[in-house]
Amino acid sequence: MPMKPAEKTGEVIQLVSFKLDSEEYAIHVLKVIEVIHMSKVTRVPNAPGFVKGVINLRGKVIPIISLRSRFNLGEVEYAKKTRIMIIDVAGTLMGFIVDAVSEVIRIPAGEIQITPSVASGCIEQDCMSGVINIGGKLLILLSPENIFTVDETRKFSSTVCTAESVEAPECNAL
After folding, report:
1. pLDDT band at residue 98, thresholds of 50, 70 and 90?
2. How far apart are CA 25 and CA 83, in angstroms?
3. What's the predicted TM-score (pTM) here?
4. Residue 25 to residue 131: CA distance in whole angstroms
5. Homologous superfamily of 12-171 in CATH?
């Protein structure tokens, strides 16, 4: 769901905010399928470093991505607040490991500011869709579809369950 940061409308949007390192990020609530506690991840041979493996979530195989690794923030030990956010990324279900999920926030769409040009080159694409100033702190709005290259997204969608095919028989077993 593309958002227009510069657009001044009366529309209110809902975002799920979360922490990575010392920064706050957010993803549109409609992209978040659910949030689960950190669970055992099965490693996948020859996967990129940011792909921690897969989990079986109620019979569905979901790839698990470390956003810390993807954004070059360095890995840390998982804590009690570490969560996996199950996200719809261009029709493919993926799990993003985050340090903590903060809250669901409602903000006027007009408060989303355009991403500064110095920060727009994210993972070969523009994964930041805006910045929001909330009470003097900045919240970075991510576009899950742009966290990966087109080729990476294609590889994920050809090998895992998608949001549309999640009930298909091949998606119901590891």
Report:
1. very high
2. 14
3. 0.78
4. 9
5. CheA-289, Domain 4 (2.40.50.180)
